[in-house]
Amino acid sequence: MQDEKTYTGGCHCGQVRFECTTDLAMVTACNCSICTKKGLHITFLAPQSFQLRAGEDNLREYLFNRQMIRHQLCIDCGVEVFARGKKPDGTEVVALNVSCIDGIELSRLTLTPVDGRSL
Predict the structure, then answer these.
(1) How far apart are CA 110 and CA 11, in angstroms?
(2) What digits encode the pLDDT tens for the residues 26-82?
(3) Which residues belong to any copy of the CENP-V/GFA domain (predicted)?
(4) Cα–Cα distance list, 111 to 7, 30, 52 (Å)
(5) pTM of whole model > 0.85?
(6) Cα dist. 16→57, 67, 79, 109, 119 in Å?
(7) May I ask the CATH class of domain 5-118?
């Protein structure tokens, strides 16, 4: 397992900014409809490991399907930075769009395939 690191990041226009602590040990390559269409690669964080630093008023929430995941998009540039939801056991979780981390190179990460289409 990799060591945890603190990362910063945000949306394309910079209005939404965050800080998080994670080891990026699991980054998804999900084939569900939203991840496929948006090109999302997600890592899951405990809420205490994620802090929204700027732009709360610049977020719009998007819900679809079972409306269990509250996707958060910047109202200016449209980038989905993160989502809030619950794990199957009811534990709160933040789903962070790894592509929004400053300086991240997806090609250097190990992506874990997830069959979200079948869920």
Answers:
(1) 23
(2) 999 999 888 899 999 999 999 999 999 999 999 999 987 776 789 999 999 999 999
(3) 7-115
(4) 18, 9, 25
(5) yes
(6) 9, 23, 9, 24, 30
(7) mainly beta
